[in-house]
Amino acid sequence: MTARFDLRAALVAGVALGALAMASGAAAATFRTTDEDARLAKLEAAVAALQSQVAQTQQVQAQNDTLAKQNAELKSEVGQLQAQVTDLKATTIEQISDVRQTADAQPKVSFVNGRPTFSTADGQFTAALRGQLQLDTAAYLQDAPGPTSTDLRRDGPALGASASNVDAGHARDLKDGTFWRRARIGVDGTAYGDWDYRILFDFGGSGVEDAGQLYEAWAQYSGFRPFHIRAGAWPQPIGLEDQLSTNNQLFLERPGISDVARNVAAGDTRIGAGAFGYDNYWFVSGDITGRTIGAVNTGTIITGTPGSIGTAQTYGDQVGFVGRGVVTPFHGDDWRLNIGVHGSYVDRPGDTAGPATNGLIPDTGFEIKLADTPELRVDGTQFINTGGIPARSADTFGGEVAAQKGPLFVEGEIETIHVDRSDGINSPTFGGWYVEGSWFLTGESRLYNASTASFDGPALAHNFSLKQHQWGAWEFVARYSDTDLNYDAGQPGTAPLADSIRGGEQKIASVGLNWYPNPVFHFMFDFDHVEIDRLSPSATAYSTPTGAEIGQTYNVIAVRTQAAF
Question: Which residues does 49 contact at the CB level (< 8 Å), separation at least 6?
Fold first, then answer.
């Protein structure tokens, strides 16, 4: 502003001087010379220039005043806009916070490996749908059946046998075909964080599908970690193969001796209560067990087909005990070795007879029965079968070992089963063993499940995709098993002794190929070579010569299509 006022003063002074000069010039016009005229012209030109500059300055000043006014107005508008933006930001943040709080309070849905799981916002309550479909197809490669007079292949009980419970037809011509081995649907989850539950129904079967029954139903408290307390109905842990999920078995069925031993006091649908604990390097469990679901009307233990017989009300359910312990003494980054022991004890078999007429409770109402279908259930024929053994008690004891190194896996178990007879005859002991292994051709490894101390299926490196040239996981498997339900069987051609149990011996060699295209689907291809050695328990009941061989040797090809989540 000072510079602007100095310019104005100079201009005014210049104009005044110019006027004076013009006045002086007029007064002395008569005395001017040519030089003076030139000087006057220059002065007039300078005055004109100065006047032009004054006009321009005034114009610039007017423009500056206008710009200053506009600038002030813009500043005012900017301030108003900034205030609006601040208010909008605050409102938006509040709205976003409200939306997040609303979203956080809503139930959550996830699909881990295709399994729908619902949970509350805080995770205190969860419910996961569980489904399992297994369709088995098999072709039995047997010799052509002949007349029963010359074709002596038989099945059926060994003790108390009669013509009505010896099936010579299916023994000589096993059923080719298909059936739903498992068709399960249910839900499991947590409640209030420390409580777990499961409810599971099964419509599959052994040989034919069932009408459906409650398969698992239990509640569990997990607040004493690493220990858990459970009550209800479920397969109590006894044995290594017994604890392997049926979704991830190496073969379509468990080894014969494993199936026989597990069903003495545990097995599918067994009601019980107990506790288990584990971490990554040890596992221990103990349970008290009773009857199986669906077998309320029988006191006889039937292994391999729990809950499938009985019409009369029992006088007392079975009472048993089951235990298992596993340790990992050696392990590395991609390998581990597990060693374990397990066993069971039936303190009181189910009572089917009740008190005698004299008021005494007889021992004859308590029986133990051991039997198995040869590691495939498309045909449910049981070739090895002890029949009902009068018993005060029974026990099993087994050892287990499993080792894994990268894609290689091997496991084995040995079992003994002892029955304490109640009829004064020598008490029998039975046994068996198996060894099996697998190799993932595509490099995956079986995942270790610490909660069951067993090795489940693989984590797939790539799901099957033709477009991406990915083939899922492929696993080669092999197994040999031996199940012996004979006791003092005697020699061929001889009649059984008083304590003889001709339950038979079953030897099976198997190879297979498993394909896991993704976490939901699983396809299994098995080939079994089966050898059954069994002497006729009764020439009359079995319609055979005395001590005749009623076993057989055959092959079977089987395929399973599975979808499970």
Answer: none
Residue 67 is inside which H or E element, if any? Answer: helix 34-104
| E strand or H helix that includes residue 289 | strand 282-292
Q: List Cβ neighbours of 17 (8 Å cut-off, separation of 6 or more).
A: none
Of how many residues is the chain composed? Answer: 565
Residues 409, 406: Cα–Cα separation, whole Å: 8
Neighbour count for residue 477 (Cβ, 10 Å): 20
* 302, two tokens: 């039937």
Q: Is the C-alpha dihedral spanning 404, 526, 453, 134 positive or negative?
A: positive
The whole-angstrom separation of Cα 300 and Cα 94 is 69
Three-state DSSP state, 229 = strand
Q: Would you state the structure tokens that stand for residue 547, as one six-digit string?
A: 């001590």
> What average pLDDT does range 214-238 have in this prediction?
95
> Shortest CA distance to 165 belongs to which of 153, 154, 151, 149?
154
What's the mean pLDDT when you consider all of the chain? 86
| Number of Cβ within a 10 Å radius of residue 6 | 10
Could you give the 3-state DSSP secondary structure of residue 455?
strand
pLDDT tens readout for residues 172-182: 999 999 999 99
Question: What is the C-alpha to C-alpha distance for residues 409 and 456, in angstroms, rounded to an integer?
Answer: 11
Q: Helix, strand, or coil here: 90? A: helix
- Evaluate if residue 8 carries a pLDDT over 60: no
**Other Cβ atoms closer than 10 A to 157:** 20
How far is residue 555's CA from residue 127's CA, in Å, rounded to a whole number? 44
Q: Which amino acid is at 542?
A: Y
The C-alpha atoms of residue 162 and residue 388 are separated, in whole angstroms, by: 13
What predicted TM-score, i.e. pTM, was given to this entire model? 0.79
User: Residue ranges of the alpha helices (H) in 200-324?
Assistant: 240-243, 256-265
Task: Provide the pLDDT for residue 20.
Answer: 46
Nearest to 223 by CA among 199, 197, 192, 198: 192
Question: Closest by alpha carbon to 483, among 304, 283, 247, 292?
Answer: 304
Distances (CA, A) of 178 to 141, 207, 382, 402: 15, 9, 18, 33
What's the Cα-to-Cα distance from 125 to each of 101, 188, 314, rounded to whole Å? 19, 11, 39
Which residues, other chains included, contact 202 with Cβ-Cβ below 8 Å and sequence gap of 6+?
182, 183, 184, 210, 212, 213, 215
